[in-house]
Amino acid sequence: MRSRDPAGAPSRGAAVPSASGHWARKDLLGLRELSAEEITFILDTADAFKQVGTREIKKVPALRGKTLVNFFVEPSTRTRTSFELAAFRLSADVVNISATSSSLQKGETLKDTAQNLQALHADILVLRHSSAGAAQFLAERLHASIINAGDGAHEHPTQALLDLYTIREKRGAIAGLHVVIVGDILFSRVARSNIFGLLKLGARVTLVGPSTLVPREFEKLGVTVSHSLDEVLPTADVLNLLRIQHERQRKKYFPGLGEYIRLFGLTRTRAKLLRPDCVIMHPGPINRGVEIESEVADGPQSVILDQVTNGLAVRMAVLYLCGGISG
Ligand code: CP
How far apart are CA 182 and CA 89, in angstroms? Predict the structure, then answer.
């Protein structure tokens, strides 16, 4: 196991924040395979990097000389931008590639594309892809670090890590909290990664939504399933609302948006059922007026933009830890 104690890494110097512990993975593929200690280590490392963001000079030399390729085969605003900014702050060189600008369009396979990027000395490949398992497929074939930025409906580990970070920041701890996740759980990689992380860190999780999108089978993971948002809201410490992912649904899972909003939308009226200290989260992009009413999204209990800000520190931590193992 390689030590990843930044304080002990001479090439990273005093400008790099310190988080004690060890990290031995070149890839971040999901939270299912991480231990509670590894998750906490990433969050603690992110804490240190968040401090860097408050300094006059927000850049550290931690990944100087490393090359990161942001390879996004699906659209993204938050994840792609924050990985790019995180890499800049760590002094890495960054290249961005999208599906439309790559030779995937000409029939090149994902493996060939990735191997060509590695041949150009890419050290870290951040991959968003519509197929579950795409990141793992590359991780098993490349010596570059592979960071999963969302693979189909499978996992979105850095989103869950920034959600965990935000919960810990706002609520002081994660163990013992009741976290309610609402919406399209069936197709949500965010929900899956959150469930793994939250349970490992000792939270209680309830999933809420229509029975077609939140089937009882999810209880096998160790969560509670409910189809009544109004019943669950008064007991929530954290409420995480998810978008309906029309792009992954091949049939209708509920009668219409009006019906969905009536039963599962966080309207101003329904938000009054929440405890005053309950934090409202959303991974974005928000569909205002569907899963959340605008005034609630922009209201005092919402931490949605804090999540985005924390994503930068969390992604710096992930790149720093995995990027030091690649090669
Ligand atoms: N939450 C999230 O993954 O947002 P983007 O699709 O904009 O990256």
Answer: 34
Pocket test for ligand 1, best of 71, 79, 126 (most atoms within 8 A of CB): 79
Could you tell me if residue 230 is left (phi over 0), alpha (psi between -120 and 50 degrees) or otherwise beta? alpha
Q: How far is CA 294 from the centre of its chain?
A: 23
Going from the C-alpha of 52 to that of each of 94, 105, 207, 254, the distances in angstroms are: 20, 39, 35, 46
pLDDT at 17: 65
Unique residue bearing structure tokens 């990433």: 42
pLDDT in tens, 311-322: 999 999 999 999
Cβ pair 208, 234 in contact under 8 A: no
CA distance linking residue 180 with residue 241, whole number of Å: 8
pTM: 0.93
Closest-lying ligand 1 atom to the alpha carbon of residue 79: 8
Confidence band, pLDDT 50/70/90 cuts, at residue 19: low
DSSP state of 283: -
| CA atoms within 13 Å, Cβ hemisphere of 170 | 25
Compute the average pLDDT of residues 251-258: 78
